[in-house]
Each structure stands twice: as C-alpha cells, then as structure tokens.
Write a structure and sequence with these properties.
The chain is α/β, with parallel strands linked by helices. It contains ten helices and 13 strands.
Length: 419
C-alpha cells in the first residue's frame, strides 16, 4: 500500500484533470495549474498571519471544498500536505491516512462529481476500496460527501435558491441541483450533520456553480455563486477563497446586497481579476471575466487588487474597494488613480479650471444617457420651422420640434454654451 500511495501522490504527465471536458459554461472544472495559484495565495496569507509558518506543515489545519467537482483542490492540498508533514509523520501511509481522515473534506455538487472527486483524491470512487490510498475509512464516501437533496417548493420556486419548479422538478432520473451548502437555514448544524461531528474549518476553497438552470442563459440567467460565498462566510473559516464571475463588481441579477456586503467587507484581502475568462478556463466564454478572491478573517483592509489580461504585465494596487467620492467599485487600478486626481482626500470635488461647469454639479448630473431633454429617440421632426420651434440634432439629420415638447433641461436651451 505504501507503494500505491507513493505512486499516486507523485506528479504524472499528462494529468487527467487537464484533459476532462467541462460540464457546461457555468459548471467548469478548475485547471490544476490555476488551483495551485490559488493555494499559493492562501499560503502566503497564512504565513503573513502566523509569523511565516508553512500551512502545509501544520497537521491540525482543516480544509473544505463545499462545491467540489473534479476534486482538484482537495487533491492538490493533499499532495502539499503529504510533502509538508514528512518530518512530523515520517511513515507515508500513516501520513496519508491522517491527511485524508482529519484534514481534507469535500461536499460534492452532484453524484457524478462526487465520484470523480473521490477518484482524484482517494484514487478510487470507494474511499475504503482496495485501490484507495486511504486505509482508515469505514465508509465508501470517506470525507467527500454527497447525498441527493430536493428543493423546497413554494409558489413555483425553491425557497432557498430560487430555482423554478417547472424546470427543476424533474424526477429522480436527473440531478436535482439542490446543493447542500445553500439549502439550509443553519449551515453550521448542517455541516456537522454531514460529517458526523462538530466541524470548524480553517480554510474553505472552491469553484461554485455560477447560475441556476432556469431556462435563462448568459447574463439573463439567475446567479447562484453569491449564495455559496455567503454560506461559506457563515462557517467562520480563517481563510476563504473562491473563483466567481467578475460581473458581481458592477452588475448581475439580484446581486446588489451581495455586492454591497463584499465591497464593505474589510476582510477581503486580495482580488485577482481576469478580464478574459478563457485565460483561466480555456474554451469557456463568460462575459465580464472571472476572479478569485481571498477573504481573511484576520485582515482589516485595504484590499490588494491584481488585474490580469493575457500576457500583459499584471496591474496591482492596494486600495479600498469603495473609495470616498465613488459609489461603485472601480475595476481598473488606472481608473482609481484618475479618481484620486479628480476627487482628493475628504471627497470634496474639484472644479476643473478649464471647464466652466455650474458650481457643485457632477458630470452625472449634467448628462443623461436616456431621453436627453425628455425627447424620445424616435421623435417625429418637422422639416420646416414654426414660431417657437427648437432645432433638434438627431441621428439621420436635423429637424424642428415645438418648445413644449422639451420636458427636462429647459433652462439649458437658451444657454450660450449650447448654441
């Protein structure tokens, strides 16, 4: 068995987890290289918080992937711990058993992915099977749990995740996609029930499902990843890192509360923002890019923001996520520097000397992207001018409209700056 464990845990090429196809655009498998990038980030934070200590050399640290698919995070964590704990637990089999039974835990999102995750971590879909590298499990699931759950329907929707009963109530022959982490009112009690004992995880890491399959698609589908983030926070880990779409920065259905909470949370230690999702997930098109964040229970702000775009140099800045004078998250660090020039400390606005603007008027108070002056874009224009008519410039040419048709900005019509 020691030979089996040794063979399994050493690197091999090609890695099967680099070859498997994604389930969909919104349930994508994390590439091993990217998973290790995330693990490097959290290891750096751990060292910073613990006097330079190596997280992979601590036999008491516990890890949870609450939305495991391929098992890549748990597998890579196991490999790192196996190397880091050599001095403390010299016997390989004893070391592997300790890691798999006491440190590494997962919750599968479907029956299929739970089997895949066990195969990745235990080298067998049965944790206590003859091919498993673990020898101390008493059940086939090991510490990678999955049981089919059902939605709780009310008025045609799930009370927990908002799934459509018409779409998702489709019988036992298909996956219900009622994910355990977000289908409970008491996540701590639920996790304790799942693993059969009181659990406190030091690190939570994962790549949650991004949206509900409610017959929507793209940006029109209802996001679900924010629910995983919020539930993970309620488990009070020391460190939390997840990959999620970057569209939460400024938009997305039903994300206002989530965005507000995230941007006001001083425990966000680092955000790595990838403008092109295919740079992380080859072949996957997710508009707006993706990001992974590191939430640190011991951090008190500001946040390190790293922007990645293809092979360009990484743009990095440590800054507040919500700067005084700005009501939204400024995604680009370069834009943040521009804001600092226009809105100095204290939030008092600067009136540029080269532009004659009304006192205390911001640009967003002077322009409108919709119906300027109250005129519709399909306004019927007259080709000849009558008494009191206003000349209107519009796509397709010019024309005249009665002054009475102007419902907003009337005071600007005869202002010399607009003649």
């Amino acid at each position: 068995m020691t030979t089996q464990a040794s063979f399994t845990l050493r690197g091999r090429n090609p890695d099967v987890l680099t070859c498997i196809a994604n389930l969909s655009n919104d349930e994508v498998f994390t590439p091993p290289e990217f998973a290790n990038r995330m693990l490097d980030t959290l290891a750096e934070a751990w060292a910073a918080n613990h006097g330079g200590a190596n997280i992979w050399a601590d036999k008491n640290v516990t890890f949870l992937d609450p939305c495991t698919k391929s098992g890549v995070f748990l597998r890579e964590i196991t490999k790192r711990l196996t190397e880091g704990l050599k001095d403390q637990i010299p016997d390989l089999q004893e070391r592997v058993d300790h890691i798999l039974t006491k440190q590494v835990f997962g919750i599968g999102i479907t029956h299929l992915t739970s089997l895949l995750a066990r195969r990745s971590v235990y080298c067998s879909k049965h944790a206590k099977g003859e091919h498993s590298i673990g020898r101390s499990f008493t059940n086939d699931a090991g510490n990678i749990w999955f049981e089919r759950m059902e939605h709780t329907w009310k008025d045609g929707k799930c009370t927990f995740c908002g799934a459509s009963q018409k779409v998702m109530d489709r019988g036992e022959g298909l996956e219900s996609h009622a994910y355990a982490l977000i289908h409970t009112d008491d996540i701590k009690a639920r996790v304790n029930e799942i693993f059969g004992k009181n659990m406190q995880f030091d690190v939570i890491i994962g790549n949650p499902p991004y949206q509900l399959d409610n017959s929507g698609f793209g940006t029109s589908a209802a996001p679900i990843y924010q629910m995983f983030v919020e539930q993970a926070k309620r488990l009070n880990p020391r460190l939390l890192t997840m990959i999620i779409p970057s569209r939460w920065f400024t938009g997305g259905k039903s994300l206002d509360d989530f965005r507000g909470n995230m941007l006001a949370d001083s425990r966000l230690r680092e955000i790595n923002d990838y403008l092109t999702a295919s740079d992380v997930f080859p072949g996957v098109g997710l508009k707006g890019g993706v990001c992974y964040f590191l939430w640190d229970g011991e951090h008190a702000g500001p946040c390190r923001v790293n922007t990645h775009f293809k092979d360009w140099p990484i743009s990095s800045a440590t800054r507040p996520l919500l700067e005084e004078g700005a009501g939204v998250f400024i995604r680009f660090n370069e834009g943040f520097s521009i804001l600092k020039k226009v809105v100095p400390e204290g939030g008092k606005r600067i009136k540029p000397q080269s532009i004659a603007l009304p006192e205390e008027k911001r640009f967003d108070q002077l322009v409108s992207s919709l119906r300027p002056f109250g005129l519709r874009d399909f306004l019927s224009r007259k080709t000849s001018k009558s008494r009191g008519d206003i000349l209107v410039y519009q796509n397709g040419g010019t024309g005249y409209t009665p002054r009475s048709a102007i419902t907003t900005g009337v005071e600007l019509i005869d202002n010399g700056r607009f003649t």
